[in-house]
Structures are given as structure tokens and as C-alpha cells.
Amino acid sequence: MSETNSADRDDAATGGQGRPELQKAVQEIVDSGFSGMQLRVNDRGREWVGSAGVRKLGETAEPPIDGHFRIGSTTKTLVATVVLRLVAENRLGLDDPVAAFLPGFGLDGRITVRMLLQHTSGIFNFTGEFDPDGTLLPGIPVQGQEYVDNLSRTYQPQELVLLALSEPARFEPGTDWSYSNTNYVLAKLLIEEVTGCSLASEMRRLVLEPLGMSNTVVPDASPEIPEPHAHGYYRYEDAGRSKLADVTRMNPSWVSSAGDMISTTRDLHTFVSALMGGELLPAPLLAEMCTPHPKSGDFRYGLGLFVEDTDCGGTVVHHNGGFAGWAALMYSTPDGSTTLTASLTTGDTEFDFGAMAQVFEKAKQRLVTEVFCNRPT
């Protein structure tokens, strides 16, 4: 286990507090089946960073504590923030019909910008949906050999949207809630139509550059990931044989703006603490972002953010992310004073998808309790 407590660098900033319980939690999470993890906790001016496991299978070096990683659906919070910044600039309104900006898709005219951000549009998820009875309604390949074979393919965002729209709507717009990656690909196209600029350039203008997030990347179709970084692996079955693929370099256009971004634990801390601290959005828009839609039920999803009650009676906001090989955590108190940001990579452990999801959930809850309930005084 590698640990760096910022008390070693600046006792005045940290109060000299160590966090041995965080060291133990990170190691236990890695021991549960992940190949590596890096964690950063910022708590009212004190910082702790650490890592455990390995950077790459077959080597002994631990994941770098300042390493880049694929953040998956945590991307959605950054995309939602760009849309809301454009709302603040009066470039569009939350209740504007999306079809007015993107007429070429034949979208239901009742679908609004707000519905995209809060997943109430009813549009089919291009990565697949589950019916209430558990039947999988497939979208693009996201598992198995076909997924691995397609990791060098470039998908156009319009292609992903059209695939989703070829399927029946899940429900009438605004009447229910269903998490759909398609909503955030449409948000990308909306941003680009409204501004005449790429999502990457608007992300830099409105979020990354104002906050100095120089290690956060919108990769589009590039398979590259900046150094330093750990490696992510995907184990799967093909024709009765177990296979392992290194999915570190991959073309993330298959998920597009629903989950393609690359960042670091430091940059994600910078982002979520600034967002919740009111540095990016006017107070009314931030309040809307953090207000769960009633139909989202136990998920408690607002506009690109989940809201969660902790076991000790507090509240955190978050948006985690993950796909084969990678997982990301981003949590904050509502005022931004305490944050948890982390990356996990999977290795050669033979988990199926359901088992890995359970291990990930257990790891996540352990960390949330340690950071937001067992806070040192």
C-alpha cells in the first residue's frame, strides 16, 4: 500500500491527521478482487491520498496516486454542468424542447432539455435495457468477444441516437424515470448545436480551464490515455473459454458523452468541490441539479447527480461510473467541504458482471461510511 498524507507536506493545512482506516479500506477493497485502486479524500482542508494493488498485471508497481483513469458515467455530471452553464448564459432553457435544436432525429416534441439531464425522456438506452421481468433488450455490444472486437471501432454519436430511436420509447416523456445513456449523447449534440463548437471545446471553456483541470480529457474517438495510468482488464467467456483483454487503450466512442472522459482523483475533487461550493452555477440551478426527480425512486437522481443519505444521517451527492476494466467514484457533501474521489481497475479475477457489481457496491458503501460518517474531528 502506498500512502501519502498531505500532513507530511503541509501540517498547517491538514492538522497533521493520519487516516489509517482509509489505508485498511483501500487494501481490503483490492483484496476483494480488484487489481488496483487509488483514493483521494479531502476533508475540510485536510487531504489523504493512497493506492494499493498493481499498476499492471505481472508488475509490482502500485497504481500512481496521480494517475489518469477512465471515469465512465461520472462524465454525465460534467456534461450536465456544461448544459446548465449554457442555461445560465441564456443560450437555452431547461424546459425548451430538444427537437427545436435537433430537428433531424424526429424526437418527440415533448422531450425537454431537463428530461435529458434527469433521465425522464423515455428514450431507449443504446447500451441496452432490462424489462421489468429481467429480460435484456440489447443495444450495441457491451459484453463478450463482440465488445472486445469493437473496441477499435468508431461510433458516431448520431449513430448511437438513431439506434436508440429505432426502439420503442420506454414511456411517455416526463411520466417516469429510466437511466439512459442516450440522453447524454443527445446532450452532447445539443451543446454542439447551440454553441457551434465541439463538446470538448465547451467543456474546456466552461469547466476545465476556469478550474485549472489540466489533467481531464474529452477523448472523442482517441484510444489514448495520458501517462501515468494504471491498466484495466476485462475477463470474459468466449466459446466456453475464459479470456482476458487489456482494455486500457480503447476507442471510447461506443459510450460517447455518456461516459468517455478521462480524469484524475485530484481533478475530480477540484470539480465536485467547486460545483457544490457554488463556483460554477447560480444557486437556483445548483439547487435544481441536486433535487431528485420523484419518479427516480431510491436512485434519487437530479440533473446529472445522485443524492444519497448516509448511514449516519447526513447527505452526499455523487455520480460514479464504470464499464469493463474501470470504475470511478466521485462523492461530496452538499457544500463541497468533504469529497471522496477514486479509481478502481479490474484484473484477472473471474467475476461475472453481477458478482463484480456486488463487490463494487460493497466497496463503495464501505468508503462512504469511512469518509462521511467516521470523520476525524
From TrEMBL:
InterPro entries per record: AmpC-like, Beta-lactam-related, Beta-lactam/transpept-like
Region (Disordered): 1-21
The EC number(s) this enzyme carries: 3.4.16.4
Entry keyword annotation includes Hydrolase: yes
Highest taxon, organism lineage: Bacteria
Record-annotated Beta-lactamase-related domain positions: 23-352
GO molecular function, one term: serine-type D-Ala-D-Ala carboxypeptidase activity
SUPFAM superfamilies tied to this protein: beta-lactamase/transpeptidase-like (SSF56601)
Basic and acidic residues compositional bias, start-end: 1-12
The entry's keywords: Carboxypeptidase, Hydrolase, Protease
Protein name as it appears in the record: D-alanyl-D-alanine carboxypeptidase
Protein source organism: Nocardiopsis algeriensis
Taxonomic lineage: Bacteria, Bacillati, Actinomycetota, Actinomycetes, Streptosporangiales
